From TrEMBL:
<dbReference type="GO" id="GO:0005524">
    <property type="term" value="F:ATP binding"/>
</dbReference>
<protein>
    <recommendedName>
        <fullName>Adenylate kinase</fullName>
    </recommendedName>
</protein>
<keyword id="KW-0418">Kinase</keyword>
<dbReference type="GO" id="GO:0019205">
    <property type="term" value="F:nucleobase-containing compound kinase activity"/>
</dbReference>
<dbReference type="InterPro" id="IPR027417">
    <property type="entry name" value="P-loop_NTPase"/>
</dbReference>
<dbReference type="InterPro" id="IPR000850">
    <property type="entry name" value="Adenylat/UMP-CMP_kin"/>
</dbReference>
<keyword id="KW-0808">Transferase</keyword>
<keyword id="KW-0547">Nucleotide-binding</keyword>
<dbReference type="GO" id="GO:0006139">
    <property type="term" value="P:nucleobase-containing compound metabolic process"/>
</dbReference>
<feature type="compositionally biased region" description="Basic and acidic residues">
    <location>
        <begin position="93"/>
        <end position="113"/>
    </location>
</feature>
<comment type="similarity">
    <text>Belongs to the adenylate kinase family.</text>
</comment>
<feature type="region of interest" description="Disordered">
    <location>
        <begin position="73"/>
        <end position="113"/>
    </location>
</feature>
<dbReference type="Pfam" id="PF00406">
    <property type="entry name" value="ADK"/>
</dbReference>
Length: 234
């Protein structure tokens, strides 16, 4: 098979998965298993899939859709203690509701600042579906090349845990109101983390972002990034 045919088949496969929200489905199932830890995991998966099949499965699926509540799998009243702020966990109907631009905390570093300090240091975005081994591969590359590993999800969780800062209050408010975590917000966290570690890092590995095609296109506009994707499939 030629390289062109391989690329075409990969593109068709990615389109198939994306159009059917399969990565989100796998993520929701894995989250449900990890949090609920059902004794009969097969029965739990079958029940979850049956629930999803009976609903409108063309709509985006929340990451915690299969976290069990006392009254079954319906988690529409997810408690605040279990709610985690995750990129792309907001239903499509709410994704249009972006926070007011004047309320959004800005990254403390400009793109020009980061560009100057990152000369010759690659930034590699590691992509793949839930359970594909992204973190494991990042750990191996850190051990081999000495890169600094940044997880978008970890950065978001870290900032929400400190409500004494402007960013912490902003992200917590977004979480409580079910607002979208915008690409700009996530990029701001990544820029600050990159700048903080730039002097000692030989390069960066980033996982958990981008999660959608449009996020990748937005990130490409930042010309200082060396932009690579790894599709990891077990």
């Amino acid at each position: 098979m030629s390289k062109a045919q391989t690329n075409e088949n990969t593109g068709l496969a990615m389109d198939y998965l994306s159009q059917r929200n399969i990565p989100q489905l796998f993520e929701a199932l894995m989250t449900g298993l990890i949090i609920n830890r059902p004794e009969d995991h097969i029965a739990y998966l079958m029940k979850s899939l049956e629930q999803y099949k009976n609903k409108n499965n063309k709509q985006p699926l929340a990451w915690n859709a299969f976290v069990e509540r006392e009254n079954g799998l319906d988690n529409t009243s997810t408690s605040k203690t279990k709610r985690q702020l995750k990129p792309d966990s907001i239903p499509q109907s709410k994704r249009e509701e972006k926070p007011k631009i004047q309320d959004r905390p800005r990254s403390s570093k400009s793109s020009e600042d980061i560009k100057n300090i990152l000369q010759g240091k690659p930034i590699i975005f590691v992509g793949g579906g839930p359970g594909s081994g992204k973190r494991t591969q990042c750990e191996k590359m850190v051990a081999k090349y000495g890169f600094t590993h940044l997880s978008a999800g970890d950065l978001i969780r870290e900032v929400t845990q400190d409500s004494s800062t402007e960013k912490g209050r902003y992200f917590n408010e977004a979480m409580s109101q079910g607002k979208l975590i915008s690409t700009e917000d996530i990029l701001g966290l990544l820029k600050d983390a990159i700048y903080k570690n730039a002097n000692k890092a030989s390069g960066f590995l980033i996982n958990g972002f981008p999660r959608r095609v449009e996020q990748g296109k937005t990130t490409k506009t930042n010309k200082y990034l060396f932009f690579f994707f790894f599709l990891l499939i077990k």
